[in-house]
Each structure stands twice: as structure tokens, then as C-alpha cells.
Amino acid sequence: MKYLLDSSQAKAIGGGAVIVALVAIAYLLEAPGHLQNALTWVDGLGIWAPVVFVAMYIAVCVLVIPGSILTLGAGAVFGVLRGTLYTAVGATLGATAAFLLGRTLLRDWVKRKVEASPKLAAVDEAVEREGGRLVFLLRLSPLVPFSISNYVYGLTGVRTLHYVIASFVARGRR
């Protein structure tokens, strides 16, 4: 009997389903309201507040929850300068975690697809060669959602270091 999906396709669909489920869970659990409450709680943590805030931001990125509440709240809790720094660190680490998850969950399937298509191979080669620059430019575009794009970039040939640098430098649009 021939299976409808090979193991790499099943893995890709499973990874996509996990991402969709995480987004659905976040909204069903009223994540934005909980983030506001969490910011109030973080404000009272003293010296641990920056560490907890950065950890929260990483989780928000991985769970594909919009981080705008945390970004804006960081200024109120820590002041503009420190809030910007903690947001940049948390968002970059969270984006990198999602990028690496996307790369490990779905990379084998994408690699086979790229090798089978000359057009995809050319695009992947361009992203690999100019990845950091392309990630930087796409980070500045409001048309590419930050949360989902972290997983998508993991599917490309962009080098991890270039991705991290471009994500940190272009952090202003989060």
C-alpha cells in the first residue's frame, strides 16, 4: 500500500500544525490580557525583572504571540533606554529560538524540495549568499509578520549568525 505522505511531508505538516495550535492556544487563553498582568508582576521583581522579562519575550516569540504589549510595556516598567535594550535582547533571542526550531523541524523536507526545483534552488542560493541583507530588509517591511517569519527563515539557507545580526539590527519594527 502506498502512503499519501512520506515521512518528511508528515513532519512538515506536523510542525505547521504545532505552530497553528500554539497560536490558537495563546488566543484562547487570552494571552494579551495575561501579558499585561505579567508586566505588572515583573515590575515588582526587582533585580530579577530584566531576566524574567527577557524569558517572557523569548516565550512570546516561540509561541507566535504578538509581542507589542511587552514591547510597549517595557518602556513603562524599565524606562525607555533599558526597556529598549531588554526588548531587543528578548526579541532577538526569541526570534533565534523560533528560527532554530523551524530549521530543525522542517529543514529536511525543504532541502529535498529545493534540490528538486531549479527555481527554488536559485532562490535558496540567493538567500544563503545574501541572507543577512534580505532578512534585514524583510524585517523592515510591515508586510512580513515578525512572529511567523522567524520559523520561515529557518527553512532558508541563511546563516544563523547573519540571521541573528540582521534580526537584532532591524529590531526597531517589532
Structure in words:
- Helix content is 79%, strand content 0%.
- The chain has 174 residues and is mainly α.
- It has one domain (9-173).
- Helix 4 (68-78) runs antiparallel to helix 5 and helix 5 (80-116) packs antiparallel against helix 6 (118-140).
- The longest helix has 37 residues, at 80-116.
- The chain starts with 6 loop residues before the first helix and ends in a 5-residue tail after the last helix.
First and last CA, distance: 49 Å
Structure classification: mainly alpha
- Our count of domains comes out at 1
**Unreliable residue runs:** none
H/E element sequence: HHHHHHHH
| Residues in helices, as a percent range | over 70%
Shape: globular
Summarize the structure.
The protein is an all-alpha fold. 79% of the residues lie in helices and 0% in strands.
Keywords:
single chain; 174 residues; mainly alpha; 8 helices; 79% helix; globular
Task: Show the helix and strand layout.
Elements: H1 7-28, H2 31-43, H3 49-62, H4 68-78, H5 80-116, H6 118-140, H7 146-153, H8 160-169
Helix pairs in contact: 1-5, 2-4, 3-5, 4-5, 5-6, 5-7, 5-8, 6-8
